[in-house]
Amino acid sequence: MVFEKTLSDLVKGIRASKRDTPLFISSCIAEIKSEINSTDLDVKSNALLKLTFLQMMGYNMSYASFATIEVMSSPSFSQKRIGYLAASQAFTQDTDVILLATNTLKKELRGAVDPGMGGVYEAGLAINCLSNIVTEELARELLQDITNLTMHPQPYLRKKAILCLLKMFMKYPQALRLTFPRIQECLLKDANASVTSCAVNVITELSDKNPRNYLVLAPSFFALLTNSSNNWMLIKVVKLLGSLVPEEPRLARKLLEPLAEIVRNTQAKSLLYESVYTITLCLPYCRKADGNMPSSVPSIVALCAETLKSFVEEADQNLKYLGLMGFGSLRMSHPKVLSAPGYRPLILECFSDEDVTIRTRALDLVIGLATRKNLTDLVTQLLHHVDMATGSYKIDLVERIIEICSSEKYALVTDFCWYMDVLVILARTKGIDGHATGGNNLGPLVSAQMMDVTLRVLPVRSYAVKRMIGILLEGGGKKHDEQHGTTSTFGFKSKS
């Protein structure tokens, strides 16, 4: 060991050789290839440690697979740890020698349950490694050993074993049916909160594919929701219960008050958002058999709206985005929630945000801001943003203006001459022909709106004809886009 470079020497050498780093690393790899074949496990494990570091820099270490198995089998814990780390990083589903690790892993896992139970940390290493390299064959061979460790006296091993089972299910799906009762027992009866949390994590991940399979656990998760104080576990519980609501709508009304209580009391932003978002998922299913909503719904909706408003007001872009997402979900059951005072300036302010994802989310909400009283002012502000917008975002703005004004057969429009003026402004707007962005050409949409309003509203016909004649005279029915050098057709047709 005196003459071999240590990992520290390797790192220092790489930092010192800035100009010829590849040459230095090549010489080190040549030394490692010699050392990795040594019969001395100290030399072999030191070489493997250096090679594992180089593998993180992108260098291949597949030629050291057999040496990795040898170091994993070392009686020394420090060497064993190096071997398991190397296997976790370098072994893939196609590694030839991976099946040779079966007996080593089995020995470590069983060592933790033998009389004396002295191999707890060795078993922990084996579980960590198995979760990264598991194949269908390894899962089939080691399933019983991992399941046995879910009953180990040490919570350290129980929680690792439960989490490892999830990785085994992905490679060997039949294992789920064989071991699910044990996971359920950990969820319901384990006295250690960290073990229960791991069981919740596993079931939450599994429920993403088919929530219906886990409806039987709804009472257990509801008990955790009302009794647990572990925020990270509650986040998973809340998400899982939210996914179960479409499968069992009666659950929605039962969840409202416990979730509202969390919203009122928690200071954790992540749990706060998940609770509000799950409430928005529950609200569409809360209607009673007589068609009425529970009496608590209006206050809970107001609570959610105020909470989401506080998110949008945050300087943090991530929280702002989550707030806008939450409002979008809340609008599904309460479309008029944003028409209350105080929300319109907040949402419109988001249109000036530098982040296009924030602007796009705000655009999805703008239709909920419109009323007969504020339509003119709202559209005027949106037209201002159309002038400054570019690309597909400009297309989206124009589409949303038309959607707001034409919704429910123009129910919000009180002055159709004004709306005709808006359409003329849009018709003359550069960049909505789709040529620059490869998007939709909105010319036909604008012209169709003009003709629809003209045909539907008799008093506006003469004014509409004058405005359309003005557009036709500008370019024979075509408008030249000076900015992009293109021509967009608005499709006006004369009727004989």
- Topology, number of strands: 2
Rounded to the nearest angstrom, the distance between the terminal CA atoms is: 99 Å
Helix fraction bin: 55-70%
Can you give the mean pLDDT?
88
H/E element order: HHHHHHHHHHHHHHHHHHHHHHHHEE
Tell me the radius of gyration: 32 Å
Main beta-sheet strand count, sense and barrel state: 2 strands, antiparallel
The portion of residues forming beta strands comes to under 5%
Strand order of the largest sheet: 1-2
Any low-confidence stretches, pLDDT <50, length ≥5? Answer: 476-496
| Helix segment tally | 24
Explain what this protein looks like in three dimensions.
The protein is mainly α. The protein has helices at residues 7-16, 21-35, 41-56, 65-72, 77-90, 101-111, 120-133, 136-149, 155-171, 174-189, 193-207, 218-227, 231-244, 250-265, 269-282, 297-312, 317-330, 343-349, 356-365, 375-388, 391-410, 416-427, 443-456, 461-475; strands at 478-481, 486-489. The protein has a domain at 396-405 and 418-496. It has 24 helices and two strands. Strands 1-2 form a two-stranded antiparallel ribbon. A hairpin with a 4-residue loop joins strand 1 (478-481) and strand 2 (486-489). The longest helix is centred in the C-terminal third of the chain and has 20 residues, at 391-410. The termini are far apart. Residues 485-496 have a biased composition (Polar residues).
